[in-house]
C-alpha cells in the first residue's frame, strides 16, 4: 500500500444547489488561452439521428429499498451490485433487493457525511474468473481508501470480508470533494477520481500535481503489489505525482470510459457558479482541465486566469439551473435507438437527465430526457450489461431509461 499525504482545510459540497437546467455557459471574462484540443467525437454527424425526434423518455422501475445508492455495477449474470453510502453493497436480483448484503463495510465508513462514505465500486476485468473487485470509500479518519476484495470461495454470491487488500490510501484535508469514481479502461488499467480536498482548492492541489487530489489517476493493479504506475503515464519520472493521468479538477464525482470510441466523459462538480462536462480521448494524458484557475469556462482565479495550457469543457451550465453535475456514459443500449452515441448526464439537485451529441468538439444536439424533479435527486448514473442507463436516486430507487409507456408508472 502507498499512502499519499496532503495538508489543508476543506469545506464545500457536492450537492447544495438550486433548480432547472441550461446548455452552454455565458461568455467568460478574461478566458484563459486553451491548450490544443485532441480530436474527439470521431463518429460522423450523419451517424447521429440528430434531426430525428426523440420519443418520450421515462425511467422505468428496476429496484427500490436502497439507502442512498451511490453506484451500481452489473456482474453479467443477472445481478446488480449496488453501493450504499453507509457502507453496504446490496445485491439486486430480478428486481428484488436482497436482504443479505453482498459485503458489509458499515463499520469501515463511520464518517459518512456530507460527502464521505462508500462512493463506488468496480469489477476487475477478470471478475467472472478471479472474483476480484475494488471499492472506493472514506475511512474513520475521513481519508480515501481504494481496497481490493474477492468473492467468497464458499459462496460466490457474497464477498469475503477477510480478503481486503489496501491498494491506495490518500489523506483528505476535509469532509468534501472526495471524488469516488473508479472504472477499468480497455487498457486494463484502473482509473480513479479524486477531488481537490478543500474549499476553492486553496492549496492548489489540482494545479500543482504534488499529490493526486484534483485528478484522475491511472494505475495497474495486476503488475505489482499493491499496484504499478503504467510506463506511459505522463508524469512518471517527473516531480509530479506519477499516478496522475489528468489534472485540474475540483470534484470529478463521476466519469465514464467508453470502450467503443476510447473516450472518457468527465463531470466536474463546480464551486459556486458552473458545472462542466469534458470529453477526451483516453490517450490524452497530461491535460489540465483548468481548476482552480477556471470554473467551467469562466475565470475563478482572476489573478492567474490568463495563463495558457488549459483544456476547456464541452458543456457547462450555471447554478441558476443546477448544483452538482452527475456525468453519465455514451449511450450504447438498444431501448432508445435515437439516443445511441449521445452522451448522457444528470444533476444531483434537480434530478434532470439530458443528452448531447458531440463531433470534433462541437455539440450537435442537446436534449432533455427527464424533466427536473421527476424522480427526485439523482446520486449517480450507471450502466447495465446491455448498455442501458440506470438512474440511482436519493429516494433509494434504481430506474432504467426507456421509451415512455402510454401511461406513466
> For the terminal residues, how far apart are their CA atoms?
48 Å
Helix content: under 10%
Strand order of the largest sheet: 1-11-10-9-8
Rounded Rg: 20 Å
Under CATH at level 1, the class stands as Mainly Beta
The CATH superfamily is identified as TolB, C-terminal domain
Number of helices: 2
CATH topology value: Neuraminidase
- Name the poorly predicted regions: 5-33
Short structural description:
This protein has helices at residues 127-130, 205-208, and strands spanning 2-4, 57-63, 69-74, 79-84, 88-93, 96-97, 103-104, 118-123, 132-138, 144-151, 159-170, 182-184, 190-194, 215-219, 244-247, 254-258, 263-268, 274-281, 294-295, 298-299, 315-318, 325-330, 343-347, 353-359, 362-370, 378-383, 389-393, 398-403. It is mainly β and 409 residues long.
Structure in words:
- This protein is 2% helix and 37% strand.
- It has a single domain, classed as Neuraminidase (6 Propeller), CATH 2.120.10.
- A five-stranded mixed beta sheet has the order 1-11-10-9-8. Strands 3, 4, 5, 6 and 7 form a five-stranded antiparallel beta sheet that branches.
- Strand 12 and strand 13 form a beta hairpin.
- It is globular.
- The chain is built from two helices and 28 strands.
- With 409 residues, it is mainly β.
Amino acid at each position: 500500500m502507498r499512502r499519499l499525504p496532503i495538508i489543508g482545510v476543506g469545506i464545500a459540497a457536492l450537492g447544495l444547489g438550486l433548480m432547472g437546467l441550461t446548455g452552454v455557459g455565458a461568455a467568460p471574462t478574461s478566458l484563459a488561452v486553451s491548450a490544443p484540443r485532441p480530436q474527439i467525437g470521431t463518429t460522423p454527424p450523419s451517424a447521429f439521428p440528430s434531426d430525428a425526434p426523440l420519443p418520450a423518455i421515462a425511467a422505468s422501475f428496476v429496484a427500490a429499498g436502497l439507502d442512498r445508492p451511490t453506484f451500481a455495477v452489473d456482474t453479467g449474470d443477472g445481478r446488480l451490485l449496488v453501493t450504499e453510502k453507509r457502507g453496504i453493497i446490496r445485491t439486486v436480483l430480478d428486481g428484488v433487493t436482497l436482504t443479505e448484503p453482498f459485503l458489509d463495510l458499515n463499520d469501515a465508513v463511520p464518517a459518512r457525511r456530507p460527502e464521505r462514505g462508500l462512493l463506488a465500486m468496480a469489477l476487475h476485468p477478470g471478475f467472472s474468473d478471479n472474483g476480484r473487485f475494488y471499492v472506493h470509500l472514506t475511512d474513520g479518519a475521513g481519508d480515501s481508501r481504494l481496497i481490493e476484495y474477492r468473492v467468497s470461495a464458499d459462496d460466490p454470491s457474497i464477498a469475503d470480508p477477510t480478503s481486503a487488500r489496501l491498494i491506495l490510501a490518500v489523506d483528505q484535508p476535509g469532509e468534501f470533494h472526495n471524488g469516488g469514481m473508479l472504472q477499468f479502461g480497455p487498457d486494463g488499467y484502473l482509473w480513479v477520481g479524486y477531488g481537490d480536498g478543500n474549499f476553492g482548492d486553496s492549496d492548489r492541489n489540482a494545479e500543482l500535481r504534488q499529490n493526486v487530489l484534483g485528478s484522475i489517476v491511472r494505475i495497474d493493479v495486476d503488475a505489482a503489489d499493491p499496484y504499478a504506475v503504467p510506463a506511459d503515464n505522463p508524469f512518471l519520472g517527473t516531480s509530479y505525482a506519477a499516478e496522475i493521468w489528468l489534472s485540474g479538477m475540483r470534484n470529478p464525482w463521476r466519469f465514464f470510459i467508453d470502450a467503443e470510441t476510447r473516450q472518457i466523459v468527465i463531470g466536474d462538480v463546480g464551486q459556486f457558479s458552473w458545472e462542466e462536462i469534458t470529453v477526451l480521448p483516453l490517450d490524452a494524458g497530461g491535460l489540465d482541465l483548468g481548476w482552480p484557475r477556471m470554473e467551467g469556462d469562466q475565470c475563478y482565479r482572476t489573478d492567474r486566469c490568463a495563463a495558457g495550457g488549459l483544456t476547456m469543457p464541452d458543456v457547462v451550465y450555471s447554478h441558476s439551473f443546477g448544483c452538482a453535475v452527475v456525468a453519465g456514459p455514451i449511450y450504447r443500449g438498444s431501448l432508445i435507438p435515437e439516443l445511441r452515441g449521445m452522451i448522457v448526464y444528470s444533476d444531483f439537485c434537480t434530478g434532470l437527465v439530458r443528452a448531447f451529441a458531440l463531433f470534433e468538439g462541437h455539440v450537435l444536439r442537446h436534449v432533455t430526457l427527464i424533466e427536473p424533479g421527476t424522480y427526485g435527486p439523482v446520486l449517480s448514473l450507471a450502466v447495465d450489461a446491455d448498455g442501458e442507463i440506470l438512474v440511482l436516486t436519493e429516494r433509494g430507487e434504481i430506474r432504467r431509461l426507456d421509451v415512455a409507456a402510454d401511461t406513466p408508472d
